[in-house]
């Protein structure tokens, strides 16, 4: 981690006079901006990843024993299971609910820290969850389901709100529409390509609602047009700033990782 941080600093210093040659790197997202308070029963799949008793990323329950999050979250703690605890079943990231130890971290082997591609990690819990109305596994985006551009989605987390009157201790959520892939790629031309492993959501022209620092690894959820079942379609990954006009949030596309998730978890 220390070497990687130094490399980032060198890159930033070097590129002060050569931005046209070396485009700025993506910024990890993390907070809910422009959202509203959410009770955990409204997003019972949401979890808080903790290190030394402090929240650092989000994640989603996908079974009694597995959590899915972003690879850049687990990289930040050395992909070491001993460095992570998972708080479940609470609207607050700092108390209540239950804390679970992590048995194993499975980071996607293709993760690229420069482009933030393949930004997926799985956490296997030491003990199975006792599911109830505050703790539920969310179904993954199915191959036969299509969520077109402008589909309304729901993102949640405990990240920075950019508003002193909105506490980040309490779980918050925001509704954001899916953004056309080509349009999103054009927006980020100077940063990093939007690959097939990514999906974008946000209010493109006006901004104002987004995920940001602290929400990383958390869920982007769409609801099945057939029966209204919530589906995990994205994982909070990166973006330029937070809730900035013309820069929608970028999420890891769950559908692109279905085979990888199944191979590692059986789900």
Which key terms come to mind for this protein?
15 strands; disordered N terminus; alpha+beta; 4 helices; 6-stranded antiparallel beta barrel; 267 residues
Overview of this protein structure:
This protein has 267 residues and is of the alpha+beta class. It is built from 4 helices and 15 strands. The protein has a 6-stranded antiparallel β-barrel. Strands 3-4-5-8-7-6 form a 6-stranded antiparallel beta barrel. The protein starts with a helix and ends with a helix.
| Uncertain regions spanning at least 5 consecutive residues | 1-26, 161-166
Average pLDDT for all residues = 84
Q: Tell me the total number of β-strands.
A: 15
- What string, H for helix and E for strand, traces the elements in order? HEEEEEHEEEEEEHEEEEH
Q: Helical amount among residues, as a percent range?
A: 10-25%
Number of helices: 4
Strand order of the largest sheet: 10-11-12-15-14-13
Describe the secondary-structure layout.
Elements: H1 2-14, E1 27-28, E2 36-37, E3 46-51, E4 54-61, E5 66-69, H2 71-75, E6 85-88, E7 98-107, E8 121-125, E9 139-140, E10 152-157, E11 172-179, H3 181-187, E12 198-201, E13 219-223, E14 230-239, E15 249-253, H4 258-265
Parallel strand pairs: 9-14
Antiparallel strand pairs: 1-14, 2-11, 3-4, 3-6, 4-5, 5-8, 6-7, 7-8, 10-11, 10-13, 11-12, 12-15, 13-14, 14-15
């Amino acid at each position: 981690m220390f070497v990687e941080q130094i490399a980032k600093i060198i890159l930033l210093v070097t590129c002060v006079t050569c931005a046209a040659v070396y485009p700025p790197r993506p910024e990890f997202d993390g907070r809910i901006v422009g959202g509203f308070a959410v009770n955990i029963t409204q997003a019972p799949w949401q979890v808080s990843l903790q290190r030394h008793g402090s929240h650092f990323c989000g994640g989603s329950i996908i079974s009694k024993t597995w959590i899915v999050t972003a690879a850049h979250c687990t990289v930040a703690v050395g992909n070491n299971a001993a460095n992570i605890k998972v708080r479940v079943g609470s609207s607050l990231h700092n108390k209540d609910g239950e804390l679970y130890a992590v048995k194993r971290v499975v980071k996607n082997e293709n993760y690229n820290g420069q482009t933030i591609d393949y930004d997926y990690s799985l956490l296997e819990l030491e003990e199975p969850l006792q599911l109830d109305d505050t703790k539920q596994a969310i179904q993954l985006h199915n191959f036969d389901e299509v969520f077109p551009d402008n589909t309304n989605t729901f993102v949640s987390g405990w990240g920075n709100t950019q508003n002193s009157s909105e506490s980040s201790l309490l779980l918050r959520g925001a509704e954001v529409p899916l953004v056309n892939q080509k349009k999103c790629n054009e927006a980020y031309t100077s940063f990093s390509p939007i690959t097939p492993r990514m999906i974008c959501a946000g209010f493109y022209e006006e901004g104002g609602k987004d995920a940001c620092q602290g929400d990383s690894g958390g869920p982007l959820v769409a609801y099945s047009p057939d029966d209204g079942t919530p589906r995990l379609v994205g994982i909070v990954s990166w973006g330029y700033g937070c809730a900035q006009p013309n820069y929608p949030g970028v999420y890891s596309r769950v559908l692109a990782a279905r085979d990888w998730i199944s191979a590692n978890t059986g789900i």
